[in-house]
Specification:
There is one protein chain. This protein is an alpha/beta fold. The protein folds into 3 domains: about 200 residues, Methylglyoxal synthase-like domain (Rossmann fold, 3-Layer(aba) Sandwich); about 140 residues, Cytidine Deaminase, domain 2 (3-Layer(aba) Sandwich), CATH 3.40.140; about 140 residues, Cytidine Deaminase, domain 2, CATH 3.40.140. Helix content is about 40%, strand content about 20%. The strands form 6 sheets. It has a 6-stranded mixed sheet, sandwiched between helices. Strand 16 and strand 17 form a beta hairpin.
């Protein structure tokens, strides 16, 4: 069965967007309209003739609307196979009329949760009849059209106008696929709320995750890979997918990944002084705070200007003209900021290939949530690394205690190390990264690479000495041997922050004492693979 004429439609929607226009178009093709409650009222207000669902079923809507469409005259009219003699006979015997179109969007469960409603209101916004109708109509898409999204009304109207009130199988099949995705996403939101919020289960026995496509990307991590961007159907965290792009070509897979890394790191300083983060291949290559955003950018860039070329920049303050002018001095893929002045926008507008993203409020680094990684044969799921350490939680383990400035530098370096690929070593001084070593197979090499970068920066900028002299050094995990720590000491670090917990802690502490270092343990590591 290819072309199927629509003679009767059942409409029951919480979102009335486009409803009047759809009702008028259906009436123009002689379609009988059957509807429920508020939807019927809205259609009548548009001057349309509507049959109440209670007149169709012979039963009133009851139990505060919980029971209205759960009836054989509804589901029989949806599920009956039109060319099956037994189904047709059953319809005749029980006076069941065929329903050719269902227009349903579900109770606003996610919006109800998001507004902070109490448990009773949330439960009442779990739709039962809607998903049942959607699934019945979608199963019988051979004969029935199911619409769950007002954005699809126009396509239905166009199809009916082109085919004298009928639709073709390909259209109905696509609508059915979209409908099942909609109910799956809806159920996933409900199951997540029950598990994560109502029951407080961090890792439930069955984890249902639904994503809504925002469109395909040009390609994935490499040109031979396909990719798309999805946003969670339930979670309402602002991030790069929700940012407003003012200019530049569309973001690539790698752009999204790298810009997310930059935004997550700069969000650690959302309540702090002006801060700039420069990221390359998901690793920070320069981070700095300053009295102004321009000062912070100049300091971050100086840390590793080679890696910054073609990188990603994120800031925690609205962009001003002076900072935008400085940023425009080198090739940058993406700049992400909460906002930007009109002068800054005009400066960036001259850089056609630069993407400028305005994120609005920065995400909360303390927020809960899950991260998901695909592996062969399964998924690895864990809670977000939202761990933080305060000064009061630090444990001094060396003979010399760090000074107040060293403690400040330690915590700054520790925050950067949290967002750097393991093995990670970060040198920092006065709110500026001095050198970053990332992603090495051993911690000693990370310490050496970071020191080399600091030395190169000093040579590039004609500094008297590398910034690692008098710096604090952070290690994302414990030093298993003293060699990594001694490499940091050779680079000029005077204070160390690390998790501790190695079987050789005593050896490492002794080496720190011998070198005159102050060292604190966090008791928390930040592996980032």
């Amino acid at each position: 069965m290819t072309q199927v004429a629509i003679k009767r439609a059942l409409l029951s929607v919480s979102d009335k967007t486009g409803l009047a226009e759809l009702g008028v178009a259906l009436a123009r093709h002689g379609v009988e309209l059957v509807s429920t409650g508020g939807t019927a009222k809205a259609l009548r207000e548009s001057g349309l003739k509507v049959m109440d669902i209670s007149d169709l079923t012979g039963f009133p809507e009851m139990m505060d609307g919980r029971v209205k469409t759960l009836h054989p005259k509804v589901h029989g009219g949806l599920l009956a196979v039109r060319n099956n003699p037994e189904h047709v006979a059953a319809m005749d015997a029980h006076d069941i009329g065929a329903i050719d179109l269902v227009v349903v969007n579900l109770y606003p469960f996610a919006a109800t949760v998001a507004k902070g409603a109490d448990r009773d209101e949330i439960i009442e916004n779990i739709d039962i009849g809607g998903p049942s109708m959607v699934r019945s109509a979608a199963k019988n898409h051979e004969s029935v059209v199911i619409l769950t999204d007002p954005a699809d009304y126009a396509e239905l109207i166009t199809a009916m106008d082109a085919h004298a009130g009928a639709t073709d199988f390909d259209f109905r099949r696509r609508c059915a696929a979209k409908a099942y995705a909609a109910t799956a996403a809806y159920d996933s939101m409900i199951s997540q709320w029950f598990a994560l919020t109502d029951l407080g289960q961090t890792l439930p026995g069955t984890l249902a995750i639904a994503g809504v496509s925002q469109g395909e990307l040009r390609y994935g991590e490499n040109p031979h890979q396909s990719a798309a961007l999805y946003i969670p159907a339930a979670e309402k965290v602002r991030g790069i997918p929700q940012a407003r792009q003012l200019q530049g070509k569309e973001l690539s897979y790698n752009n999204y990944n790298d810009t997310d890394a930059a935004l997550e790191l700069v969000s650690e300083f959302r309540d702090g002084p002006p801060t700039v983060v420069i990221v390359k291949h998901a690793n920070p290559c320069g981070v700095a705070t300053g009295e102004t955003l321009l000062e912070a950018y100049q300091a971050a860039l100086a840390c590793d200007s080679v890696s910054a070329f073609g990188g990603i920049i994120a800031v925690n303050r609205p962009l001003d003209a002076a900072t935008a002018e400085a940023m425009a001095g080198i090739f940058t893929e993406v700049v992400a900021a909460p906002d930007a002045s009109e002068e800054a926008k005009a400066i960036f507008a001259k850089k056609k290939n630069l993407r400028l993203l305005l994120t609005g409020a920065l995400p909360d680094p303390h927020r809960a949530g899950l991260t998901v990684k695909s592996i062969a044969g399964g998924y690895l799921v864990q809670s977000r690394d939202n761990g933080r350490i305060t000064r009061e939680e630090l444990k001094v383990v060396t003979k010399r205690a760090p000074t107040e400035q060293e403690l400040t530098d330690c915590l700054f370096a520790w925050t950067i190390a949290k967002h750097t690929k393991s093995n990670a070593i970060v040198y920092a001084k006065d709110g500026v990264t001095a050198g970053i070593g990332a992603g090495q197979m051993n911690r000693r090499d990370s310490a050496r690479i970071a020191a080399i970068k600091a030395k190169e920066a000093a040579e590039t900028h004609n500094w008297a000495q590398p910034r690692t002299i008098g710096s604090a050094v952070a290690s994302d995990a414990f030093f298993p041997f003293s060699d990594g720590l001694l490499s940091a000491a050779e680079a000029g670090a005077t204070a160390v922050i690390q998790p501790g917990g190695s079987i050789r802690d005593d050896e490492v502490i002794a080496a720190a004492d011998a070198a005159g270092l102050a060292m604190v343990f966090t008791g928390m590591r930040h592996f980032r693979h």
